[in-house]
Fold:
Amino acid sequence: MKFALLFIVSVTATAYAAEPIIVADFEGSDYRDWRATGTAFGTGPAHGKLDGQMPVEGYQGKGLVNSFLGGDNATGTLTSPSFKIERKFLTFLIGGGGWADETCVNLVVNGNVVRTATGPNTTSGGSERLEPGAWDVSEYAGREAMFVIVDQRQGGWGHINVDQIVLTDDRGATPIVVPPVPVAKNVTRDLIIEKKLLHFPVKTGAKPRIVTVSVDGKVVRKFDIELADEDAQWWAPLDVSEWAGKKLTVIADVLPITSKALDSLQQADTLVDSGNLYQEPLRSQLHFSPKRGWTNDPNGLVLYNGEYHLFFQHNPYGWNWGNMHWGHATSRDLVHWHEHPEALYPDEQGPMFSGSAVVDWNNTSGFGKDGKPPLVLIYTAAGNPTVQSIAYSLDGRTFTKYAQNPVIKQISAGNRDPKVFWHEPTKQWVLVLYVETPGKQHTIHFFNSPNLRDWKLASVTKGGIDNDKYLFECPDFFELAVDGDVSKKKWILTAANSEYAIGTFDGVTFTPEVSRLTDVRGIGFYAAQSFSDIPNNRRIQVGWSQAPSPGMSFNQLQTLPCELTLRTTPDGVRLRREPVKELEVLREGTNQADSLANFRSELIEFRADIAPDQTTFFEFNLRGAKISYDSIKQEIAVNGHRATAPLINGKQKLAVFVDRTMLEVFASDGLTYVPMPFIPNPLDQSVLIGGNNGANVSKINLQLYKLKSSWTRN
Ligand code: FRU
Structure:
């Protein structure tokens, strides 16, 4: 049967092609002169699937090599006798685990592995089907070789299936397995530190490598990074200023032997390509984003010594999430941000996950000095165990981790994102923590402390279960006056997806009066936090906007700071949000609504007060973003994404900010907020207005501003 098949193959080949040579078809009852080690291969070929295995298909005849004998944990090797390479290609069928070096087949010539291939699977699911593979072996013509089947992997997909190993001049439709470039392990480079920054070459999408940086024999940094073996797409800076004059050893766990990654490391005092900083094509100009790398949640928002601090989840070395640090930026006006070196690096307790910051005015922590109140950061160290820890600063620039960290031990593996505030009526600190409890219940744990160091569990509020994200991660908790009446205050508990509850709080227990209100109605807004220690009872919030900047050396951004208030509506008391007044400094000149036809701007603030009459449907086109309002349905649509937006006193009040990678739309006088990732066409800088039944500009109270970039002061 098998020979017949091969015969057909050979007669369809070119007239000069020699007959294929079968190296092995595994049709016998044992492995003949092949040599097995370990237990995974047994003493002879399998006939299909083994105990506990999914169905195995795609092999030829009755027998095949199947190293699932004894399950995934069994290991071993199976080696052919020596054979001569007398044809151009070596073809085979292969399935099972996709682990390089561990579940693979190797061609060995003169003691060296010259070709290798793996099965396709590394994640659960997948298929046990064998697929054809082929190596071009013409360069070894006439040499002796051995075929080695390897299973050195335990756990998921820790086995390999092989059949029908054939030398042939005609590989037919069988795809060639590209020979892998040989790799070297623990590739090392020593450098004497002469500059502030050490730049690593990055290619987004390249295979991540683990890089270890040591000084005086001690590991000082460890991270993963998509190192560029050839030309860098961008350069990730590592701050090495604290090791000036010392020898630094950089080790990459694995690199192709041809990689130039470590040779190309460069030292400089400034960023590579710094002349272009903040002018990159997809650098949003109204919103904060890190100079280099990825950001997600805003952290530790606080006003300290006249500066607003924005810490943020930061991967300094990659375009995607990972290596969580606390990045750091400050601003004197909430508009112009200046980025500083990393505030918190990962340490033995793990990566630095989200948290908050407070000014310890009364020095309850004892971290203050000479009458200066300390700035205290409270964060999650997400190692195993995952714990809550603190750090402090007296200058708002350098941060010292508390020697007795952690301050709260692990409750469950997923506990995280501490939000801390001073509760004046009970004169104590309160910490609000997300904790997943048994039964996969999302809970918020409340703790009390006199000094930010010693915490006692006070109460627990329950949210959703398992996939229900209600009160899931990144809690924020604050008090607001209803309709500006300070004698009528309510506590608001928000979660990462911005659902919220309103209720009362006595310093120990939160008692919700209404639960599960929907706040943000846009796309990609997550993990918002509000500033601590802001005067005049202002509650200012910033969220993570999941707006990508493809192809750039940075990714994602923080939303505009917004002021939160509580307003009574026909449905009850609701959160309302407006962009902070401070943003008005970005207006370039005055309202230009009267010259709509000639208006051109890349960055736009658009405000419209609409009183619908016979016109019930309005359409605004801002640089290609389509925003429409239907006053009958009382609904807004932003690029087709709909959200309820009631008329307030018969009017619709809109505000829209247009930036390079996102839009922020505020409707119903701030009761509806629709942020949205959006990359406008750079050539389209116009604003158009239309609608039904003779909509015209004169009926709309319009304000239209060109905006300046917020990066100008950097
Ligand atoms: C939310 C989150 C947090 C966590 C952080 C890690 O986006 O998952 O719960 O602290 O991001 O970056």
In short: The first strand starts at residue 21 and ends at 24. Confidence is low (pLDDT under 50) at residues 1-15. Helices lie at 2-12. The pocket of beta-D-fructofuranose is lined by residues 296-297, 313, 324, 353-354, 380, 416-417, 473-474, 496, 526-527 (CB under 6 Å).
